[in-house]
Amino acid sequence: MTRDDTLWFVIAAYNEGPMIAEVVRGVTPHARVVVVDDGSADDTGDQALAGGACVATHLVNRGQGAALQTGIDFALAQGATHVVTFDADGQHDVGEALEMVARCRAEDLDAVLGSRFLGTTVNMPALRRLVIKAAVVFTRLTTGLKLTDAHNGLRVLSREAARKIRIRQDRMAHASEILSQIARLGLNWREHPVTITYSEYSLAKGQKISNSVRILEDILFGARS
Amino acid sequence: MIVSLVASALFLFVLSVAAVRKFTFFGLKLAVMLFAAAGVYFVWNPDQMTWLARLVGVGRGADLVTYATTLILFLTVVAAIMRERRSNDVLTLLVRRLAIQQARFPDAPGG
Predict the structure, then answer these.
(1) Shared domain check, B23 and B38
(2) Which of A10, A202, B1, B34 has an alpha carbon 20 to 30 Å from A56's alpha carbon atom?
């Protein structure tokens, strides 16, 4: 397997020291990786570097949206033709991400969005399924995008799309923001089935249900776009 | 008497601060100065406050003061939140620029 130096995986990581090196090592045989260490208190940055990723460090925590935008800026500066946003906690499957990139290239798409509802989920809590379904309906009403999933962190963006999309929502509302920009910019997108594995680690690290209220607040009052 | 003096002093302080400070809108400066001046006046003429309250359909002068204070406090909080949002955005841009400029590369890039 040869590494594709024009393909960049962007991973936003906050206190992901225990898992990040392993996640990075899963990607580095296939593509370049930039980990944005979002002001972690642990050794996330060093672990990611040891795993073979480039590391951009936020000196203070700015949130996942801000970290992804930093990583995208970095990848574009390094000449990326495609950017993959990838979770730090091992929920995503590298093989599926590469399939999405191949599809993005083959069909000349601007964006390929992972959907866990077209694909499979492993150990998904019922309440989380309900909240995500609510987000899907919300997205459909606000953007007109007929998606099956709304807050999936696995996305492939072409260079053009990555340049046009500007994440201004520093925290978690960026997932909705990216979708609304895809709709507004009229980008050519497809959904692709992916597997999300809810491991004990990812569940402990992942979104709390209560965060959805915060996300809604950010969408309603925080957006300038 | 002492309460009235203290209240007047506070209003006069606000008036002088508004007079020397720059505002984004001249209208806002004018509004704050007028409000402070009115404050001084009504501290010494509380009956007039009741007259004004009746005029706008509120029972007592004290009630009108409460409503006005609540409204001003609310607007102040909104302004503070918006200011905080703006400075947060600036902070993010700064942190991002630094992160990219000082990015670390692995010895064998990409493993």
Answers:
(1) yes
(2) A202
Nearest to A184, CA basis, from A169, A164, A170: A164
Instruction: Mutate one of A20, A38, A54, A84 to test the B interface: name it (highest B CB count within 10 A).
Output: A54
Does any CB of chain A come closer than 8 Å to the CB of residue B109? yes
Decide if A135 touches B, using CB distance below 8 A. Answer: no
| Bridge partners, A34 (sequence order) | A10, A54
Instruction: Identify whether residues B2 and B15 lie together within a single domain.
Output: yes
A155-197: per-residue pLDDT in tens?
A: 999 999 999 999 998 887 888 899 999 999 999 999 999 888 7
- DSSP H/E element including B76: helix B61-101
Q: Is the pLDDT of residue A1 over 80?
A: no
- Identify the pLDDT of residue A128: 78
What average pLDDT does the structure give for chain A? 89
CATH superfamily of the A4-222 domain: Spore Coat Polysaccharide Biosynthesis Protein SpsA; Chain A (3.90.550.10)
Domain count, chain B: 2
Separation of alpha carbons A93 and A102, rounded Å? 15
